[in-house]
Design brief:
DNA-binding; alpha+beta; about 25% strand; about 25% helix; Deoxyribonuclease I, Chain A; 7 helices
Length: about 260
Amino acid sequence: MSSWTIATWNVNSIRTRLEHVLSWLQEHSPEVLCLQETKATEEQFPLQPFQDRGWHVAQSGQKSYNGVALISREPLDEVRAGFPGDPDPSKARVLSGTWRGTRLITVYVPNGSEVDSPSYDYKLSWLAAMQSWLEQEGDPAQPLAILGDFNIAPDDRDVYDPERFRGRILCTDAEREALKRLTGWGLHDLFRRYQKAGGHYSWWDYRAGRFRRNLGLRIDLILASEALTARATDCRIDPAPRRLERPSDHTPVLATFSG
DNA sequence: ATGGTTGCCTTGCAA
């Protein structure tokens, strides 16, 4: 196939966002769409509407919170939920699968709540554990991507008001250093290969008209290994679903590749 | 202005 697309979207409940996701799939026809915050047990996930339209679904879910899924045209190989060393394997935050030799890992990184809270400490230890897993079992020389809601704005260009967010959750030095360790392992933040300017966001708080005023953060990322990055042709954010009625607070990020 | 909105099926918690 000459051109193919992978994408990531934190949908904030797959049951509430079902129609948005189905129409987005029809419009963009990605090879794989990674979802986060499905907020459904595996029994609650609306499988049939996807299957009726020819999509395959791999999922890892739990009641009320978290939940990740991989929607694909072809069934994925070696699908695996979670990772060894996860500090809390009961939380459905990671799902991986292989599409035509490319390893795809979707992640819903813990939010962290507030700096110096137990949730924040958990976020940092979770990121360290994920890094250890990748270093032990992954290979950045192979085609591989990590896609998802990282709950980290990589730098000040990714924040609508860097001074307001300085030292606050999603923007602390410790979070950004954890992300740099991850990319330092051999991954590229694909969006930044194609767009150097700030002001491009993937998440806007529901409150205070933040989307209308484009007061957002770029926290949904596609990190690709060198082997995969070499085949990339574009990476962009699609703001359209954020304008729909009852939207997710996040919008999809897509990457396209050749070959 | 430490506000505000959404989704879970809680009557608060997480984001």
